[in-house]
Specification:
Elements: E1 2-6, H1 18-32, E2 37-42, H2 51-54, E3 63-65, E4 80-81, E5 87-90, E6 93-96, E7 98-100, E8 103-109, E9 115-118, E10 122-128, E11 131-135, E12 137-146, E13 149-154, E14 172-173, E15 177-179, E16 191-200, E17 204-205, H3 210-240, E18 245-248, E19 260-265, H4 269-272, H5 279-294, E20 297-300, H6 303-312, E21 320-322, H7 336-343, E22 353-357, H8 366-379, E23 385-389, H9 397-405, E24 412-415, H10 420-429, E25 432-435, H11 444-451, E26 456-459, H12 462-468, E27 473-475, H13 480-492, H14 494-509, H15 513-528
Parallel strand pairs: 1-2, 1-18, 2-3, 18-19, 19-20, 20-21, 22-23, 22-25, 23-24, 25-26, 26-27
Antiparallel strand pairs: 4-17, 5-6, 5-9, 7-8, 8-16, 9-15, 10-11, 12-13, 12-14, 12-16
């Protein structure tokens, strides 16, 4: 059997989450069926495949590159033009400008009521004192000639006010309609000539309308047709090599024609908790949802994830198969000597800290945990340290600011993701582990802590409650008082910690990558007709 597998996680810097699942399942399937073949599909726009990431596999798969991940694409830009379309507004009449290089000229009756330089305008990323600007042209100077007399006005002249922005080095931008004061024109002259020296923007966004929309739609259709062609070419290459299925694993959610298409579902946080997910991540996730809906099979990392797919996205239940996550074989209890060696450089002592492993982002609920911990220290000043382990996600500044304002920088440590051995030592040396996320599709840190013989405090909802069963202390993740009380209970009750640790070991043993690999192999055989 030969499958193509989304290799995006092997291009990333973090060893957690999607990457851990990919390594666990691919290694298990390969161990169960040595003839099983895997080709990684990677989008070169996501960066190179990282050798240290590939080292997590027990085999070396071939890699094909194709720029197909929608997350790597920019949205089709709105059509633009480079012509500023300069005109003059003279006493209510629109007069075409004579153009010569960077000079727009007017010759005609002297204006008596108004005179303005009109042009296209387009929003810029730069901001002035009034915020984001719609800029027209940058005027560097104006020459007004009549009866042999010439009045020269610098573009930075303060008299250029209405329709002009603040002066920069030698000029002013118009907002698309820059009015020239009538006081600059000769009163007695019947005719006048005006030369406006200007610089245009590189491009101007076309005004919304049928013409611009048609251009935009045609460009988008062309891009989609090109992408469809690349998908067909990639599918043909893979099929020629004997590949029968493609597995989308978060980073490259594509469907390859002629292959069995499978999508791996890790969570639905962008749908269930959109307020805690970045806007760009929500947008990118929309493509993943499409893959869930049109895939021949969806592999869900928990029963809770399966139920969410069925109830929230209305995926037929017979197209969803639960493939549970498991802790890596390398995450296991460590000797006291190994733990002490790993903890000493971090300033930590065995059994003297609470461990929370997760990326530092809003959905993981670090801020509430931190607030609950601060409240705990008011009644229990001798509380053990709190240690966060994970990548710095978005909105992390709130966590850092609160930690600093609360004077907890000494008691609350933040460590980056490290090697598997180091993580196992951190789990093994912790008094207990806290995973109080607002939502999880699986809750891998729960199983990791249990496997290391460490008691667990976790949330009473989503996959966390499912994974924990009766082997963890459950708490409402939105209730800071409840979290604080649960922290104190586990700190003070050594017997409870021991009981949960023993239950946790048995619970973790009920999850294995081998069992999940067997599920995948059997299902792939049904889907592809392979023996």
């Amino acid at each position: 059997m030969h499958i193509a597998f989304d290799g995006g996680c092997f291009q990333q810097g973090s060893p957690a989450g999607v990457y851990a699942v990919a390594c666990g399942i691919l290694n298990a399937v390969k161990a169960e069926s040595p003839a099983f073949r895997v080709t990684l599909v990677c989008d070169p726009r996501h960066g190179p495949v990282r050798p240290e990431a590939l080292a997590g596999l027990t085999f070396v798969p071939p890699v094909v590159h194709a720029p197909l991940a929608v997350s790597g694409e920019e949205r089709e830009p709105w059509p633009t033009v480079d012509d500023p379309d300069l005109r003059f507004l003279v006493d209510g009449r629109i007069v075409p400008a004579s153009m010569a290089g960077g000079v727009a000229s007017y010759a005609g009756p002297t204006p008596r009521r108004s005179f303005a330089v009109l042009s296209r305008s387009s929003q810029t990323a730069e901001t002035g004192s009034w915020g984001t600007q719609r800029r027209g042209i940058r005027v560097s100077g104006i020459e007004i000639s009549a009866q042999g007399q010439v009045v020269r006005v610098s573009g930075a002249d303060r008299r250029l006010a209405q329709g002009f922005f603040e002066a920069d080095a030698g000029g002013r931008w118009t907002d698309g309609a820059g009015f020239v004061p009538l006081s600059l024109f000769p009163d007695q002259a019947a005719e006048v000539s005006v030369d406006v020296h200007f610089t245009a923007q590189p491009a101007y966004r076309m005004q919304p309308g049928p013409g611009a929309q048609i251009i935009h739609d045609l460009r988008r259709a062309r891009a989609l047709a090109e992408r469809a062609g690349m998908l067909r070419d990639l599918a043909a290459r893979l099929k020629a090599d004997g590949c029968t299925a493609y597995v989308a694993n978060h980073f490259t959610p594509i469907a390859l024609p002629g292959l069995v298409n499978i999508a791996w579902a890790h969570d639905l946080a962008p749908i269930l908790l959109p307020q805690y997910v970045r806007a760009d991540a929500r947008l990118a996730f929309a493509e993943t949802v499409k893959r869930f809906r049109d895939a021949d099979r969806v592999y869900a990392v928990s029963g809770c994830m399966r139920d969410d797919l069925v109830t929230q996205l209305h995926i037929p239940s017979d197209r969803v198969v639960v493939v549970p996550n498991a802790a890596s074989e390398g995450i296991a209890p460590q000797s006291d000597a190994a733990v002490d060696t790993a903890l000493a450089p971090l300033g930590l002592g065995r059994g003297q800290y609470i461990l929370a492993v997760a990326p530092l982002e809003p959905c993981k609920n670090h801020l509430r945990l931190l607030m609950a911990y601060q409240a705990l220290r008011q009644s229990l000043p001798s509380a053990p340290d709190l240690v966060f382990v994970g990548t710095m996600g978005w909105d992390v500044e709130k966590i850092l600011t609160f930690r600093r304002a609360a004077g907890l920088e000494g008691a609350v440590k933040i460590l980056p993701d490290g090697a598997e051995q180091e993580l196992a030592c951190l789990y093994s040396g912790a008094m207990f582990s806290a995973c109080v996320s607002l939502y999880e599709g699986s809750g891998l840190p729960i199983l990791e802590a249990m496997r290391c013989g460490t008691a667990v405090l976790t949330s009473d909802r989503s996959a966390m409650a499912e994974i924990a069963g009766d082997a963890a202390l459950l708490v409402d993740p939105y209730d800071m008082d409840a979290i604080s009380a649960a922290l104190q209970r586990l700190i003070e009750d050594a017997a409870l910690r021991k009981s949960l640790a023993l239950k946790g070991i048995r619970r973790a043993d009920s999850y294995s990558w081998r069992a999940s690999g067997q599920i995948v192999l059997a299902d792939l055989a049904r889907l592809t007709g392979a023996a």
